[in-house]
Amino acid sequence: MRSEKTPFEGGPMDGRVLPVLVGLNGLPPKVYRIPVPTGEDGGAPAVLVYRRVPAATTRRLGLPKGWKYVYEG
Fold it and tell me: What is the pTM of this model?
């Protein structure tokens, strides 16, 4: 499968660029969930949720030019 370097904004991943697998249509997933271990006590891992938004748009048609993920919480 193909991957695309995608920037992350907000939350603990702010400023990082990670390779994200794209689907058959060439788009990354709408929601990206990252499980984070909470500690040594063996509790349930916390989940960071990021939503896909257009990184920029074209001038004339307003079509998306690339994608980025924004922190949801």
Answer: 0.84
